[in-house]
């Protein structure tokens, strides 16, 4: 069996299954479709020699172990990818393979000119001359985030099954639900996973190696108005919607996602609902710097306190919920997994692309559970959209990377 023989067939089969998670559900996992797909993966793990395959009751993660064959003291390493897709149409996904793309031409996804993937709009396409690209038909997302990671891990396992002579330490596998809802890793059983360190295979283009993420919180502002007839409103009405606007206008004007980059943090108002009687604003707060992150949260509370003092009563209530923290706090104490991944990329002539992520991964939470977990590239581009695509050759390089990390991990500890 060639090293990558199963990669593309697996990926195409995986993405055709709708595993969209449900952000409005309180169940774990949030959607039965994820559970069914995870059951399928559990069977496939057993078929390629993974043992102790089981579902974590607390999280819904399917985990298992590829036993070591090196008779050494190699630290246990883990690989994690999520199975759910984002909040975009995922029903009846029709993947299309465009072989030997020239890096210049438009790709007519829908065949009628309605949905076209254009280098003029998405210049990342120019990097992929000579690559085989997998896209959608324009009606759905693709699901390379993160079924490319799932397929990469499974292909690694296929390789070890076919090549038992290749030495490796004990390898733990974890397939996760609900990464896209931001809740999947909340319930992850790190003690059950029991690795020295791990990697999420959930990044984008070739070379991505990420160990610095945002600190993240969600703030919900509840505003109680005083609704009266507009004819007698003067001096009596407190329009909750207007109060919401006034609240928002007291935040730093330019601290918004559309005006920030690199390590610049922001406040993002992503939901505003209500009536003059009652309104609700929901924000996400992001910053790489922990102190600035705490200051941002306090700013939101201070604005509410100031407005309530002006009203002479409590009309604005702020609830802040921390979501995840910058994994760099953990990784910088022990850079071993980052250094191994970096060395593995360099050995493969892949230039490491290390930068602060303007987002988070399941590894952000898992790192704070005691398993340092940086993130590796899986290949996806334009994620969460109808224009999502992935290079088959980049996924192949991801498989190479996993194998090389395991080789270095074994060699350096025996």
From TrEMBL:
GO terms for biological process: peptide catabolic process; proteolysis. The gene is pepT. GO terms for cellular component: cytosol. Binds 2 Zn(2+) ions per subunit. This is Peptidase T. It comes from Pediococcus acidilactici DSM 20284. Belongs to the peptidase M20B family. Its main location: cytoplasm. Keywords: Aminopeptidase, Cytoplasm, Hydrolase, Metal-binding, Metalloprotease, Protease, Zinc. The keyword Cytoplasm applies. It is found in: Cytoplasm. Cleaves the N-terminal amino acid of tripeptides. Residues 211-312 form the Peptidase M20 dimerisation domain. Its cofactor is Zn(2+). Pfam families: M20_dimer, Peptidase_M20. It catalyses: Release of the N-terminal residue from a tripeptide. The lineage of its organism: Bacteria, Bacillati, Bacillota, Bacilli, Lactobacillales. Zn(2+) 2 binds at residues 145, 180, 384. Zn(2+) 1 binds at residues 82, 145, 202. GO terms for molecular function: metallopeptidase activity; tripeptide aminopeptidase activity; zinc ion binding.
